[in-house]
Design brief:
The protein is of the alpha+beta class and 189 residues long. It has helices at 11-29, 35-40, 42-69; strands at residues 78-88, 92-103, 109-110, 113-121, 127-128, 144-145, 150-160, 165-173, 179-187. The protein folds into two domains: 9-69, no CATH class; 78-187, Immunoglobulin-like, CATH 2.60.40.10.
């Protein structure tokens, strides 16, 4: 649902300006401010007007910068690449996958998880082979891809020879549950 100020109707801006005009007129109507008070304090009003203008310019510039770069700053941008190798044998084929995770964003990717799903062709049940990832022996190792760096994951799995092809679907999620996905289809014959 769109917020009311994003609707195509011009009624919201018109109502805003009417309200602003009435709020500016209210102190004069209640005799809190008079024209002679404004003339007596014109220097103070000028200083306050300049300060409010500078503050509005600073806030507007900051919000414009954030809006313009929204989605470009403080986000992880991951490029996934998959390379597959097949080693045929008599009854099954041995597949080796190398998954490269490159961080092109402006923040590090922390504690990412890799899921690998194999989809045979002709279609049948997909196979989750995430448990076949070759893990590091260091149990205290955090999975981290710093800005501008690349990390690699490896999978070695035996698959049946009967399907014509396999599609390897790689899904990477970071600790804030942002997801990146890449697929690679290879011939199984």
């Amino acid at each position: 649902m769109k917020p009311p100020w994003r609707e195509s109707s011009p009624i919201i801006p018109i109502l805003f300006w009417i309200t602003a005009g009435l709020l500016a007129y209210a102190p004069f109507k209640a005799d809190l401010v008079s024209l002679s008070d404004l003339e007596d304090n014109k220097d103070l009003i000028e200083v306050l007007s300049t300060a409010v203008g500078l503050l509005a310019l600073l806030i507007g510039g900051t919000l414009s910068y954030i809006r313009f770069f929204r989605g470009r700053i403080l986000n992880s941008k991951v490029d996934l690449d998959i390379q597959a190798g097949c080693f045929p044998s008599i009854y099954k084929n041995l597949y080796s996958l190398e998954i490269s995770i490159s961080n092109r964003g402006s923040v590090s990717v922390w504690n990412y998880r890799v899921h690998v799903i194999v989809r045979p062709y002709p279609p049948s049940n997909p196979i989750d082979i995430s448990n076949s990832l070759i893990q590091s022996d260091d149990i205290f190792e955090e999975k981290l891809v710093n800005v501008g760096e690349t990390s690699y994951e490896h999978v070695v799995i035996e698959l049946d020879k009967s399907p014509l092809a396999y599609t390897f679907e790689v899904i990477v999620r970071n600790d804030s549950n942002t997801m990146w996905r890449r697929c690679l289809t290879v011939n199984n014959q």
